[in-house]
Design a protein that fits this description.
- This is SH3 domain-containing protein.
- InterPro entries: Beta-lactam/transpept-like.
- By secondary structure, the protein is of the alpha+beta class.
- The protein folds into two domains: 240 residues, Beta-lactamase; 67 residues.
- The chain contains nine helices and 14 strands.
- The strands form five sheets. Strands 2-1-7-6-5 form a five-stranded antiparallel β-sheet, sandwiched between helices. A three-stranded antiparallel β-sheet has the order 12-13-14, with no helix packed on it. The protein has a two-stranded antiparallel ribbon with strand order 3-4.
- α2 packs across α5.
- The longest helix has 13 residues.
- It is globular, with a radius of gyration of 21 Å.
Length: 346
Amino acid sequence: MTLRDERQSELGVVPAGVTAGFAVFDRHTGRFVQQSDADHRFRSASVVKLLIVLDLLWDRGPAYDVDPADRSRLEVMLRSSDDDAASYYWDDRGGAAIVDRMVRRLGLTHTAGPPPTHPGFWGYVAITAADTVRIYRYILDHAARPVREFVMELLHEPTRYGTDGFDQYFGIASVFDPDFSIKQGWSGFLGSSGFGSDRAKPLDCAVDLVNDALHTTGTVGKNDRCIVSVYTLHPRGTQYGKAYTDVTRLTRSLDVPGAVRTTGSWLTTTGVGVRVRTAPNTSCGILGQLPAGVEVLVSGQRQGEFIDAPPRSSDWWAYLPKYGGYVTTVYVGSGAPKLPGVPVYQ
């Protein structure tokens, strides 16, 4: 084993039971920092929306004007991963022909349209971590300035939840701060689109359409220094919170030059429908809801309203910096009301 192999074995730790392909590219050096199965094909889920927006804007130069109707659809498609907007453009612009055009234009090597039996399923496009890096390199280093600025501004301002209600702050968005952009993808989980909800199953396909898919892609660091592309598959029926945790753990293990990682302690949670609140009490506003069983980053804790939920009770509340709010420690950590080793806020 070479020194490089030894170093690689310490990084990019893939959780047990997960199939992964990932790549980290440093734009400062023009080199890949890490790659593992970067040419392994996965179904794209919503990551293909990058190709959809680039195809739409391709022939609009030199001004690359975006009319109000398109702007509205593209904003929700890229910021909140809206599927209806993607389907509108997929149908309007020729479906798989979008992928064929962008493969030629960007020199993608392993990207292909969905199975012939499912031409309308843009989430079944085959894609790889390496090709995703190529897409981001085009946007950042070769696209016309109006295109680059339009797309990247939206990717830098993702909403916490997709329009389907799924929390999309896993992976890159959970680990890094403050400079990151994301285009995430999820498919197959209970309540989401994907193979499990299809009536007619593709019998012959280049990608796995059975297991649940969760992908985190985007940029990290000042001036989008690094491109990070992580594709994963999880056994069919995996809870979203577990997959969310596994992708985030894998992303945490990557070597990303120039990245600033959000500080705190990673703790497991329990319960279903646990709410994140603006203050340490139940009479304040609700910021969101945790995926069941997800691992969260905690930067501090403070006392507040006493919560009694047998067999646990506590008047301590954990602060989650990535949500900007509080969760009772009844549902965070190993069971102690006050979290050991976590700073106390006054």
